[in-house]
Amino acid sequence: FINSHKGKYPIEFDMIGYEPEPWQIYHSILLSRLMAWELNLSWWVDLTLGRLVEKVGIERASMVFPNYSSSSPTINFKAAEKGKSFFSGQSIYSGISSVAGFMQIVQSYRKYFNMDASGVGSNSWVIDSSRSLSGKPIIANDPHLTLPAPSKWFEMHLTAPGWNVAGASFPGSPFIIIGHNAKIAWALTNAMIDESDFYIEKLDSTKLDSVRQNKTPLQYLYDKKSIPIESHEEIIRIGKDDSITINVRRTHHGPIISDVHPSTEKVKNSKLISMRWAGSDVSKESYALYLINKSNNAQDFVRGVREFAVPGQNISYADVDGNIGYWTAAKIPLRGKYDSMLPLPGWSSDYEWKGYVPFEQLPKSWNPKEGFIATANNKIENNSPYYISNLYMPPSRIERIRELLNSEKKFSADDFKRFQNDCVSSYAKFVTHVLLKSFELYPPNNESIKSALEYLKNWDFKHSSTDIASTIFNVFFVKLLHNTFEDEMGIDLFSDYVFFSAVPINVMDKLLQSDNSVWFDDINTERMETKDDVIQKSLSDAVKQLQKELGSAMKNWQWGNLHTITFEHPIGTQKYLDKIFNIGPFKIGGSSNTINNGEYNFSNPYKEIVGPSTRIVVDMAKPLEYYSVITTGQSGQPLHKHYDDQTTLWLNGVYRKVIMDENEIKNSGWRKLTLTPME
Fold first, then answer.
1. Element (H, E) at 313
2. Which of the residues 7, 33, 106, 509 has the least number of beta carbons within 10 Å of its own beta carbon?
3. Which helix (H) or strand (E) segment is 505 a member of?
4. Strand partners of residue 235
5. Is the peptide bond before 442 cis (omega within 30 degrees of 0)?
6. For residue 87, how far is the Cα from the chain centroid?
7. How far is CA 30 from CA 178, 214, 286, in A?
């Protein structure tokens, strides 16, 4: 197509003067690394917490480190009874602000490509034959990603000798990422693996004179040995004729990321910080998908899962024989007994990875007694013999999924469609309870606050687009985050701290369960504020903001008036072009704590930027059909009829039935497009 359509490319190529490169096999392989980078935010947390320690000290910072309640649901209930010690922290973080430039670059990249949010959520669940009305397993999946136009997903039915598989794929990938064939079905959610660490490197000061005289390269210390820093140049091409050359330096841990931004030179006592990432190691995700796509049974499936490493995934399974299963498909680093949520001393082997958890020891489950398996980026297991992560998403979604799966004895595919569109939040129920209790002790005099409290008292915790209590709650919660953290952190660090939404939500859960915390105190005032002070101030601030933005009549405070979604095209960020390229805005329900995810950025509320990027339900009683919907449409051409023809379906929780039976397809009267390879 590239060769035969020179000068006739889609309009955005002409608008930015871009000449596409010929597509190569390695471009398809690189897709997995791009997704691995997008879905890996453990590195973001490490750098943010390191900067937090530098600013407020290890004691205060550790109070707001991410956590996941041990009483919340896990995926795997077969856990070993061993604990884990943590590295208590050393005063080595002075100058770590040198990484702020690196984080700014990544933020700019993510914002430009409509990824200005954590975007690492997803739901999946599968029931066995005993829980299914059809008598066969049913599996459901809705991966939560950022929501650009065109859709991230391309629906595909792939047939060839030995192949008959369908589902959702990424443009450029020759395989189905999520889907099923005539024998098995599988679903993916992010496993939230902590697969990155940063190392503060110590230069060998005894060699600096030799370096200045250009006799030897710069060297760093590791276990009292002096090792040269490797370096090479890379060319980044800009447009047709321009380019810049950068010098990439690396230690044995990985690239030195504190070099990336020129602002590094302005940071006093800046440090050399290198990055260790599982995604830098060789793995075979394309081969894994090839094997999974062709699987006929559980044994074939496991052979494929073995090859999958990044981004670490929870892979759920169902087959026509009635089996269900789950496997953690990831490279989980084997660490020592130290806290990996902070940058580590790079000069000591005590903080090195000792390899990866062997595949056979990864968490898994087959045909559990419960009759179902559910994953929602929640904790994989308690008391694991090795550290997996402490960066799990809040338990609200998994709690609601399990509540629904325990509400009846048997379910249908239609039930699962309804579940995927559920907007009830158990987290909102907990926080609202704390809020109401605070005002019971200190009743308000303000009539508007009294009215807001009445809405919250009568709330069913369903975040529908027409609901008023949802609006009050979400604006209150954003104010609560600002009033709790921003005075100590400052606006820039606060924005980084709340970027990965799981961190502030889980931390606030912990703080609200405590009697009090020094973090509730406003350091800019003379008095010592309490939890109740901050809660009451936050509701008061929320009511004032809503009166200013939506008017004094609370009947107009519907959630959809604030919480909207626009599927934005990169070209649509330009003035006047948004009407052509973007799809929306639309009023929408949900929040980051509902099954029907509606995440917004806490620093720039309340536009939804993360949600179900596709919804898929497969009943293995009818393995040659499934139900699906994507956010926009199959076409990337803004004026094409299939550019946005699924958006209305997606917004209203409607699905399309997709068929895989060859005879039924031939008799359906659908249009047929034949693509003939060039000889």
1. strand 313-319
2. 7
3. helix 502-513
4. 245
5. no
6. 27
7. 18, 37, 9
3-state helix/strand/coil string of 404-438: HHCCCCCECHHHHHHHHCCCECHHHHHHHHHHHHH
**Band of the pLDDT at 119, cuts 50, 70, 90?**
low
- At 78 the pLDDT is 46
Cβ-proximal residues to 225 (8 Å cutoff; 6+ apart), any chain: none
Which residue's entry shows tokens 């602000």? 97
The whole-number pLDDT of residue 69 equals 80
- Comparing C-alpha atoms, which of 644, 611, 669, 432 is closest to residue 535? 432
Other C-beta atoms within 10 Å of 553: how many? Answer: 8
Burial class (CB in 10 A: 0-12, 13-18, 19+), 669: exposed
Q: What is the pTM of this model?
A: 0.94
* 569 burial level (CB within 10 Å; 0-12, 13-18, 19+): buried
Contact 190, 311 (CB under 8 A): yes
Q: Which residues contact 163 (CB under 8 A, 6 or more apart)?
A: 181, 293, 294
Amino acid at 290: Y
pLDDT computed for residue 458 by the predictor: 98
State the pLDDT at residue 672.
Answer: 79
> What strand order describes the sheet that includes 364-366?
154-160, 163-169, 178-181, 184-190, 313-319, 324-329, 364-366
3-state helix, strand, coil in the chain (%, to 5): 35, 20, 45
Owner of token pair 């391309």: 154
Q: Which of 325, 319, 320 is nearest to 305 (CA)?
A: 325
- Is residue 137 very low, low, confident or very high in pLDDT (cuts 50, 70, 90)? very high
Residue type, 444: P
Q: What does the block give as tokens for 521?
A: 């105190």
Q: Which ranges of 252-360 would DSSP assign to H, the alpha helix?
A: 285-293, 298-306
Q: Quickly count: other Cβ atoms within 10 Å of residue 248's Cβ.
A: 13
Distances (CA, A) of 585 to 57, 152, 479, 570: 43, 18, 25, 15
The amino acid at residue 27 is H
**Closest among 257, 263, 278, 250 to 50, alpha carbons compared:** 257
User: What one-character DSSP code corresponds to residue 359?
Assistant: G
- pLDDT per residue as tens digits for the range 477-531: 999 999 999 999 999 999 999 999 999 999 999 999 999 999 999 999 999 999 9
Instruction: Name residues whose C-beta falls within 8 Å of residue 233's C-beta, 6 or more positions apart in sequence.
Output: 245, 246, 247, 248
Q: Which pair of structure tokens corresponds to residue 558?
A: 């519907």
Q: Which helix (H) or strand (E) element contains residue 493?
A: helix 491-497
